[in-house]
Design brief:
- The chain is an alpha+beta fold.
- Helices cover 46% and strands 11% of the residues.
- It is globular.
- The protein binds fe (ii) ion.
Length: 407
Amino acid sequence: MIKKVSVDDLKPGMEVVQLSADVWQYLPYLYTKPGVIRNDAQIQAIKRDGFLHAFINTDIHSELSDEERLEKLILAQENEAPRKPRRPFNKVIDQARQAYTRALDQTKRIITDAKMGRQVDFHSSAEALEGVIESAIQNADTIVCLSKLSKYDSYTYSHSINVAAIAVVFGEFLGMPRRDLEVLGVAGMMHDLGKTAIPNRIINKRGRLTKNEFEQIKKHPIFGLKILEKSQDIPMGVMQAVAEHHEKFNGSGYPHGLKKSDTSVFGRILSLADVYDALTSDRSYKDAILPNKALAIMYGMRDQDFDTREVQLFIKCLGIFPAGSLVKLSSGNYGVVFESNPEQPLLPKIKIILDEDLTPIPARLVDLAVPDNGVELRIVECADPSQYKINLKPYFHSRIDNSPFNM
Ligand SMILES: [Fe+2]
């Protein structure tokens, strides 16, 4: 619904719509520049310029602030909002993989642009993320799986796209509108751009950082913000998220030591996705932590790094056994979780790939919620692929017609 409001009632997050020129000539004090109001400073400038009214679209952006909208979404999730039906995993995984690769290529492009001192392009980044957002809407497990199983040569690139993907999946889980998913995705892609302004010897240092080196690292959100400020059309939500992705709930984060109440919804979601991907990734100086253990660690960081309700919902979103986890079943076989079960989180769908001696066997799909030939299979433990020297990648990169994910 289009509604006329006084400029005194404008709030950040509202979307101003442009009306036809005919209307405008009868309303000379009408502010008509279309787009989302970014912040209070913009509202002050509109008032200073003498505008008295604006037309806003109440369908797309309500008068609620981002914070109030998130609160509504969290309440809906906590009250078990009905889940949308998902498209079958095997029907959408190929499309998701292509979307992921496209978004990864764009991530490489913007990181190179930032290194070369060029502007970064919001619109082509948002466009490159469209497929990832679509896949997250159709079946988020595809994206969670890809983020954990697809390893690329460079941590910088894969971490940036993974943070984008996980943030989009969580935003979608909360029921955020597509426009916000775009902000989250682009913010994920761009969140560490500021590291391009820090010497490689510090970024890639394997040993412990000196105090001085860590002080330099702590500046990367500010450097990132500077890169975005000199680029065109970057939405305020992306800037906030990049600037705030290392702030913590209790104010102990950096660069500004902001508390939860001073951070944006986008910044907090990015921080959850950033920590989850960092914990579950291999680095030169540490092995990846299993997804379920990473979530347990993050729960332990509640009320310090994260808001308790927000981290609880993040865990609920990814599930106890996130897609892509290797698990051991009560039969002794091993399998990969490839489709979570939000109603019964302990009973996801599993692709069995190894027997009890870790010998590959013809891949077979089992739904733990349904007895397998009369036998009720259960997950007995989460297994570490690197400990067993199992490379899950081939199971994911083979073509769909002979893929173990093909049903
Ligand atoms: Fe960072």
